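INFO  loader      accepted 1 record
INFO  loader      residues=195
INFO  predictor   begin
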Amino acid sequence: MVSPTVTPGVTPGLRSASKLERDAAWRALYDEHFDPVYRLVCRLGVPLGDVEDVVQRAFVVAHRRIQQIEEVRNTGAWLRAIALRVVAEHRRWQRVRRVKHWVLRTSAEVDRAAASTPEREAATHEAQALVAALLARMSPKLRDVLVLLELEQLDLAETAESLGIPLNTVRSRRRLARAQFQRLWAEHTSNEVAS
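INFO  predictor   done
INFO  writer      dumping tokens
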């Protein structure tokens, strides 16, 4: 096994000979990156009841791989790439199993307004549910680009690195993703007006 090279996102303790120091360094990395990975998994359309399992699986994969790689240039991008692959694997297994799912109908509220009212919360929940439903109907490749660029607010280079695709492919998929999302939004709006 090759120890990872010390880089700006990977703490030196991960290379330590001491198990105690490696564990502390891993815990610091986990604590720093848990919320962004959790948010990404939610935004990629994983059912809320499965989000924590998928996030934990992504960190297990990262923990196993950190000792096998030579260098991590951007820890956040590396973890996002792992999370994207774990989410894709989760979707494949979800389709294979086709077992009953008890889906929690709660929103993943990351930032709750201090002066929230029941009306605002209901409107926010409805908007989040609508966006999640529209994202679920999108092509996975386009949805991944849209979520990383628009919701996670990554730049084009970080998105390309996270997905492992060329920068021009990200640009093309962003344009197509926006068009597809706008088309789905327009369909939803016209269906609501017609009802």
